[in-house]
Each structure stands twice: as structure tokens, then as C-alpha cells.
């Protein structure tokens, strides 16, 4: 992993003057998830509410030297109940962020999308990787590489808008979106190219807002101005995208992992489109990536606060 190029540190610096966000941490029953929550608290990013079996949480803390202090614990008998109670805290307004502990992602997201008791909105839920790639000049968002397997055109509208709103919350008010495909021309033989063209026109018509879209773009044309120039592509986005919108989950997952393991990128992860941002971390995440995930979610939560206050 890279030791830091300054891109994540810029996001963390924006959080220093902001209040920590109350965060329901679902089932933090191993060292990684419990320590991760307290690292984020120590950095002033979140105020954790631990949801899970009280005895197990206290045992993990004692074994690994984690001082729980006066941190609130909401008792739950097992991981499914932990997920449900963590979501309930958000519904009650006691938490403004949701953070994954040591339970499986499907358990947490199952509680999030539950029709009557979850955190659904009119938007489709989607995942975004916020990537610090040492060879790229700014933070790069890759979406969706974790939730929507084969998104329809309508799904991609929400995936795209979720990512745009994320980048706007990070301080870029007109992000550039490269819609990826295998080629840069539109052909009925490749449905991803037709979706890309449709998304661009939908942006022209105001169905997608606050961003500049271009596509279809092959990866080389999206990332390299020289590659785009050689192919005769004139684009505001080529060579300077903030967001890479992938055609499906497999493409996104492969791309994100290639950037991580071949380009030494760090990746922070967040789920968007629910009532609150959801912090998804894994055992393999570096401390820097975990902190960045919390920082990104914190900035989105504060942006939501401001938007709600503006409507009052």
C-alpha cells in the first residue's frame, strides 16, 4: 500500500473543524472492527454507539486493550439483531451514520433495505470506492463495484447521481463523470455504450444534475488526454474524471482491485442512496483506508445536515 500521497489527508483535514457524527456500529465483535471505530473516534470523525452482544464486545475490548470508556452499548443477541437495532437507531434519529462491524455485509444491507423497517429512499442503493491512486492527480471514485451486479439504465442513473452527490459533498461542485465501456463509439452490439450515450443525454435534460458526463469512453481515453487526442476525442472529461462509472459489478470490482494491487492505491468504501451513508470496511483495509472511509461518510453526513437546514 502507498504510504500516502496527500489526497486522503486533504479529506481528513476538512473534518477537523466539524463535530463528530453519532454512528451506529453494527456488531463490532472483533479487534479490527472495534479498534477501527475507536480509531475514527480518536480522529474526531465519529461518536460511536456500539450495537451487539454486550459481554462479547467488552471481552474483545479487554483482550485487546481497547478502552471503551463511557461509550454507549446497545445490547443485541446476535448479528442479525445487531444490524436491525443499528438501523433502528438511525430511524430514531439517534445516529446519522451506520458502520459495519464484524458481521457480513449482506446481513447489514439486508436490514438497510428491509421494506418497512429499513433505510430505503427513492434512490437505489449503490457502493462507491474512493481511491487514492499514486499515479493519478486526484481522488478517483469508482462505482458500483460491490452491490449492483447488472444495473439497468435506470439503476445507473441513481448510481451516477449518488456518486456525484458524494463528490459534491467532498467539495467539488462540478465533478466530471467518465462512463466506461470497452470502446468509445456507440454500438448496439455493446449495450454499455448505449447506456452511456443515454446517460449523457439524460444529463443534458436535467435527469442527472451537478456534473459533466461523457461516454462511452474506454478506460485509456477516460484517464489519458493523450489517448483521447490520438483517437480524435474532444472531451472535457477525458484525462480528468473524478468519477468512473463502470458498466457492471464485475468490471468495477476488477478495476478497483487492479488499482489496489497493481497501482498501490488505497481505497475507502461507502454505501450511498440510503437515508444515511454506510461505512463498509474490511479486515484487509489499512488504518488509512478505514479513517478515509469514516472521513468521507462524515463529510456526506454534514452535507446532508446543511441541506436539511436549508429547507427549514
Q: How would you briefly describe this protein structure?
A:
The chain has 312 residues and is of the alpha/beta class. The chain has eleven helices and eleven strands. It has a domain of 153 residues: Isopropylmalate Dehydrogenase, CATH 3.40.718.10.
Describe this structure in words.
- The mean pLDDT is 93.
- The chain contains eleven helices and eleven strands.
- Strand 5 (126-132) and strand 6 form a beta hairpin.
- The radius of gyration is 20 Å and the shape is globular.
- By secondary structure, it is α/β, with parallel strands linked by helices.
- The protein has helices at residues 7-14, 31-42, 54-63, 79-91, 105-113, 153-169, 191-204, 219-223, 225-230, 249-262, 287-311; strands spanning 21-26, 46-52, 73-75, 97-100, 126-132, 140-143, 176-180, 212-217, 243-245, 266-272, 278-279.
- It has an eleven-stranded mixed β-sheet with strand order 3-2-1-4-11-10-5-6-9-7-8, sandwiched between helices.
- The chain has a domain at 121-273: Isopropylmalate Dehydrogenase (3-Layer(aba) Sandwich).
- Helix 1 (7-14) packs across helix 11 (287-311) and helix 4 (79-91) crosses helix 5.
Amino acid at each position: 500500500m502507498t504510504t500516502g500521497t496527500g489526497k486522503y489527508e486533504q479529506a481528513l483535514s476538512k473534518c477537523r473543524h466539524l463535530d463528530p457524527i453519532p454512528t451506529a456500529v453494527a456488531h463490532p465483535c472483533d479487534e479490527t472492527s472495534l479498534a477501527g471505530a475507536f480509531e475514527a473516534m480518536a480522529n474526531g470523525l465519529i461518536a460511536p454507539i456500539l450495537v451487539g452482544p454486550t459481554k462479547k464486545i467488552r471481552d474483545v475490548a479487554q483482550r485487546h486493550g481497547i478502552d471503551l470508556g463511557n461509550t454507549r452499548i446497545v445490547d443485541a443477541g446476535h448479528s442479525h439483531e445487531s444490524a436491525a437495532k443499528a438501523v433502528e437507531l438511525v430511524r430514531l434519529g439517534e445516529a446519522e451514520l451506520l458502520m459495519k462491524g464484524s458481521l457480513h455485509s449482506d446481513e447489514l444491507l439486508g436490514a438497510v433495505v428491509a421494506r418497512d423497517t429499513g433505510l430505503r429512499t427513492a434512490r437505489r442503493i449503490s457502493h462507491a470506492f474512493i481511491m487514492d491512486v499514486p499515479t493519478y492527480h486526484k481522488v478517483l471514485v469508482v462505482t458500483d463495484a460491490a452491490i449492483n451486479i447488472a444495473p439497468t439504465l435506470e439503476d445507473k442513473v441513481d448510481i451516477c447521481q449518488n456518486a456525484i452527490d458524494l463528490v459534491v459533498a467532498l467539495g467539488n461542485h462540478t465533478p466530471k463523470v467518465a462512463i466506461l465501456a470497452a470502446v468509445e463509439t456507440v454500438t448496439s452490439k455493446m449495450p454499455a455504450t448505449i447506456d452511456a450515450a443515454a446517460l449523457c443525454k439524460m444529463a443534458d435534460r436535467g435527469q442527472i444534475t451537478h456534473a459533466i458526463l461523457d461516454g462511452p469512453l474506454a478506460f485509456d481515453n477516460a484517464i489519458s488526454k493523450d489517448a483521447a487526442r490520438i483517437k480524435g476525442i474532444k472531451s472535457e472529461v477525458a484525462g480528468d474524471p473524478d468519477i468512473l462509472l463502470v458498466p457492471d459489478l464485475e468490471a468495477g470490482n476488477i478495476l478497483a482491485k487492479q488499482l489496489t494491487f497493481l497501482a498501490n492505491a488505497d481505497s475507502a468504501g461507502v454505501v450511498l442512496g440510503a437515508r444515511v451513508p454506510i461505512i463498509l470496511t474490511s479486515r484487509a483495509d489499512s488504518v488509512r483506508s478505514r479513517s478515509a472511509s469514516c472521513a468521507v461518510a462524515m463529510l456526506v453526513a454534514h452535507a446532508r445536515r446543511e441541506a436539511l437546514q436549508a429547507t427549514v
